[in-house]
Amino acid sequence: MKLAAVDIGSNAIRLQITHITHYNEQINFKKLEYVRFPLRLGKDVFHSKSISEGSREKFIKLMKAYKLLIDLYEVDDYMVCATSAMREAENGRQIAQEVKHKIGLKIQIIDGNKEADLINIALRNYIDHKPYLHIDVGGGSTELNIYQNNQKVASKSFKIGSVRSLDHKKSPLVWRAMQGFIQQNVDKKHNITCIGTGGNINKIFELSAPRKNKRYLDIDKIKEIQAYLASFTFEERVNILNLNPDRADVIIPAALIYLAAMEAANAKRMIVPDVGLKDGVMNVLYEKNKSKLSL
């Protein structure tokens, strides 16, 4: 069985195609294809509240390319989810309808709570009875989820994101609201561990030169990497550190968001599991279609 997940974010759009097999009573997930295209829809939306004509044309071409891959791999089922940029764009739903009509690809524009729920599905193997603060920083929004005893006890989405921070001054009210939410819902009597998801924290983790099998960062290490990145110009981050241009400008504001959330929770450590929205979508698709799997 083959499944496809598309994540239409504010900074990039990702496609993953996975082959799921059953062998010797074991279910195996094998990634067949992964494409990340740096189409920054958030740059338009967070500035003008609309997706520009140029971005719309590129988006339509990209959806055609993804649909061709989905068809070529003979995918059994797929799900396409769009997050903050398309849900805030005045023409987001119109463009989604155009894609459905012209290409036959159905796009679901999901709210922040649904986005958090899908990411949380992918985190199930990392949550136990201990207290956790999950921080997912995207281009246009940050989703926070607080866990205690294997249960989510609080959740909220905030309009704070890495792309949004590039063209706008920080909104003190939103930042204070995010920090207040954490302080109100985190019991500081207990040490809380953070879980960080998103492309930027994965890149920060990679830059930290982690030891084998280590999937966590101390807050001091995140501060160190953030300061190191800030010591370079944008051009130096691209040419010396070899970061993609669409990563080189957003990674510093993203780091500041992770750090602000950790400090509000008085957290000292962050697990970086390298999962995201597409992984949650893939799990939903599997549960929906597992009866079709040859057992």
Automatic annotation (TrEMBL):
> Locate the Ppx/GppA phosphatase N-terminal domain: which residues?
34-282
State the InterPro entries in the record: ATPase_NBD, GppA/Ppx_hydrolase, Ppx_GppA_N
Q: Which GO terms describe its molecular function?
A: pyrophosphatase activity
Q: Where are the transmembrane segments?
A: none
Alphabetized Pfam families for the sequence: Ppx-GppA (PF02541)
Protein name in UniProt:
Phosphatase
Give the originating organism: Echinicola strongylocentroti
